[in-house]
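Memo to structure team: turn this sequence into structure tokens by end of day. - J.P.
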Amino acid sequence: MPKISVHKKKKRKGFSVLYILASISLLSITIPYLLPIHLKEIPVSTIVYDRNNTVVGEILPDAIHRHQVLALEMYPQFLVTTIIAIEDQRFRQHNGIDLVALTRAMVENIKSEAVVQWASTITSQIARNQLRLNAPRTRRRKIIEFTYAYILDARYSKQQLLSYYLNTLPLGYMNYGFETAAQRYFGRSVFQLSQSQQLALITIMKNPVRYDPFKKSWNFTTRYMNLISSLEHEKYISSEDAQSLSGDVESLHRKNDTSIAQPYLRDYVQQQAEKQKKLLPANVYTTIDDNMSREIKNIADQTIYKLLWKDVSDYGVLVIDRQSNELRVMLGGMAYDGKAGQVNSTLSINQPWSAVKPFTYALAFQDLWLLPSDTIIDEPVQFQSLLWFSYTPQNFSMNYQWPVTIAQALAQSLNIPAVKIAEQVGVDKLLDFYHKVGLESLTQSADYYGLALTLWVGEVSLREMARAYGIFAHQGELCDIAIFSWQQVTCKTIIDQKYTTMVVDILSNRYNKMPSFPLFSNLDFPDRNVFLKSWTSRKFSDNRVIGFTDHYIVAIRIGNKDGSNMKWVSGVSGAGDIFNNIVYMLEKDTETPSYAPQANAQVAPYLHIIKPLPQTIFSLDTKLSPDLQWLKFEFSTNILYSHYQRTVDKKILSTPIRIPQVGTHTASITLFSGSSTIETREMQFQVQE
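Reply from structure team:
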């Protein structure tokens, strides 16, 4: 076997060492580009702005991140310089691993016989956060962290790494990045912060839980003052600056009211975007007016505080610009995040009660050719229904006005005339018209609702009602309500404006509402042009007012989110109080309304049997003697007469009337003047076992 010389062995060993070094160098250069390691993107929050660029909400991309991205050049120089000085002085020189700091840390750890320094860099902190290697820190995890940092430094520029660090560092309360944290702790963007506020964020970044300025103020103050001393010692700040920064420390503990004032608006914006199939950008600009919202919120809060003792706890308010139909105010309640759940009081559905009457009358003006001056009788009446055995509407006051004009019936919100008119129009036509004006929550059939459709049955939202009332503000046109600044409002004609004008004239005339609504109440506006309709639920579970002024459409509901009843709070003292104050806040100039007292209308002669009502069904009680079972026979008239005669099945009756045998019977009333017959009316009723 041939012998190899010593010289050749040394030469081969030299080549081997060079080969290994070359391989290591090649790997160190190529591995960062071969391994699939990238900076992880954090989902960005959507910021909701009002029409004046004021932040009114934030939509989180998930349940754990509040994150906004700010360009590196927008960050204050003091913040950037201070962070580099404290966290990584040689950030711009090293390759992700600071060998100088690492050597110093090894020496200190050997001296202390414990790990007291880790030689972290900004890049290694990014790696640690990306790999979630924060605790516990071990040598093995540190090696992984340094390797990852080395790769990141090779793949990304220093500017990219610094920008990522400033925009993603966790700073407590779900905040990631200094921009979001600045909004959370100080209510402004990071480039608007003072130097002491910037230093406060740098204090928090070390450990957001341990150095929470609100919950751990002593820890926060101690570290904040130590940072100032360190910066002064290293000549980053002057003694005067250090003294000034130290003097600001107390103000940094005060919790700023930077929480989202309108969380219901935030959710509504998100819902509308999803409905319109729009992908929300980082910034959404709306038509909301934050200043107006705050003023109206103060008005509504004051009314609720006055009514707390009457078991009133919540409200909903909508204000829409009448000209553009843009939403200016949406106040969804006082306790959106409370025990009752996240319920927006302007979107939750409730019974509309008599709020739908104006639509009934508008349709009647069109289909029945009625006029506001026509007469209708407000009297006891009974109707048959498919789902109810009989339906007997009653006025809210439980009294009757007898002959009234159509204008008075609507303005005084009388129930019986509204039901009479609904019967003449037809429930099918009425429900179809309600759908045309946008009351989409009424999803049942006309047979299900019956004639009660014009009074209380069914449920709709305050927003639906506000949009529907727009046909009176827009001369018969139904318009979309805009919420986004880029949104184009579309309108369509629902009914001829001459019919809506009739309704507007009726409900704008303060004299039409007497005596049901007195003058100079919260719902009376002698010096403003105001159209409004109010209503109160039978058990006082809620009340509402909807109307419009020269410039705005306003809709208000007060009640309780859990549906519990209030203590005798009507639309005048509840929603009316809020409505009144809003009108005078929005319409500051005195107007001269164009209305006059209602002239006394000529009332046509009438004669009506009011007991028993037509088609009433009586049941005989087999356990009682027929002599003990009676019925009342009563009538109402405005005709002058000398005497009258009542009959059942053409038999003249005395008072009282014994219930006849089982079957269908005809009752009649005849008025006489002397020996002459003036008027006769008859009706049928039934008797069953």
